[in-house]
Specification:
single chain, mainly alpha, globular
């Protein structure tokens, strides 16, 4: 029996690591498609559109009903709009600041979640929450000020912080308006809204949706739909099931680390002392926020 539990824990840990690393490859696909001349809305439309098809096929095999009641419809609509905002601002930020820095700044969302829950829902602010806030703020400041005395592009910083804030609100909505349905069903609607939203945004902005024009573009478009979206989601479910929400959340710190390494070794992004210390402080803040030995609640696993 202990051997079985041990094997499941190892399996869950591996799933958690792979889920975080896979999600951290978002910048790889996005930046490669930007190099091919595709717009942000087109990249996200392709990513969400293909991911939606994959999730639809999974639900078809599971024979899960897609019916929802009025309350569920309203909640799913809110989640869809929040995820559209979070994804659009994150992917847009890649054009202004290094992808690794953007992915690290995005990881302030657990701290934002804790602060919002304390302010709006009167959850007790603990010492570890205060410590995490201080560490993350210092980390953000260090990321903003580069080693050569320059600063990050303010537009890019604001965009990614808005992305983190909207994702934090997304998590709160999931927790406060529980949906009695599978993660795949939730994502069927959320990703569906995102696909539609990207099409509408492209229409209103006067930039028609661009479809990948060559094998390289199609490869990275499919990569975004399969690896950081679908595979990351499925593996996150297994990780939460076999090792618990807290260890899974802590393993999630590998997401920005992966993005940083991709930025350095593939896109030749600079890496200095300020960046290294800033990333370390923000990841430490996330670990402090996530770590709670007495916690037994499940973390939302709807990130796509």
């Amino acid at each position: 029996m202990n051997s079985i539990k041990s094997n499941k824990k190892v399996f869950g840990t591996i799933c958690g690591i792979l889920a975080a690393v896979f999600y951290g490859t978002n910048p790889l696909g996005a930046l490669k498609l930007y190099e091919q001349g595709m717009t942000t809305s087109s990249v996200l439309f392709c990513r969400f559109g293909m991911a939606w098809i994959i999730v639809s096929i999974i639900l078809l095999f599971k024979k899960e009903s897609l019916k929802v009641n009025k309350r569920e419809f309203i909640t799913l609509t809110a989640l869809g709009l929040l995820f559209i905002a979070s994804s659009m601002t994150l992917y847009s930020s890649f054009k202004y600041i290094a992808a690794g820095v953007a992915s690290t700044l995005l990881f302030t969302y657990p701290i934002m979640t804790a602060v919002i829950m304390a302010l709006l829902f009167k959850e007790r602010i603990t010492f570890k929450t205060v410590a995490a806030i201080v560490l993350s703020l210092v980390g953000v400041i260090l990321l903003y000020w580069s080693d050569d005395g320059g600063t990050l592009n303010l537009t890019g910083v604001i965009l990614v912080l808005v992305s983190a804030l909207t994702y934090a609100i997304y998590i709160i909505v999931v927790n406060r308006c529980p949906l009695e349905m599978s993660s795949f069903k939730i994502n069927f609607y959320v990703i569906g809204y995102c696909t539609l939203g990207m099409a509408v945004f492209a229409l209103l902005s006067g930039n028609p949706i661009q479809i990948p024009q060559n094998a390289t573009s199609w490869f990275y478009a499919v990569w975004l739909a399969v690896v950081p979206a679908t595979l990351s989601l499925v593996l996150m479910v297994y990780a939460s099931k076999y090792v618990g929400a807290t260890p899974t959340a802590i393993l999630g710190a590998l997401e920005p680390l992966t993005a940083v390494l991709i930025g350095i070794f593939i896109f030749n992004e600079s890496f200095g002392l300020h960046l290294a210390i800033g990333i370390a402080l923000i990841l430490s803040a996330v670990v402090i926020t996530a770590y709670s030995p007495k916690s037994t609640s499940k973390a939302p696993s709807d990130k796509s």
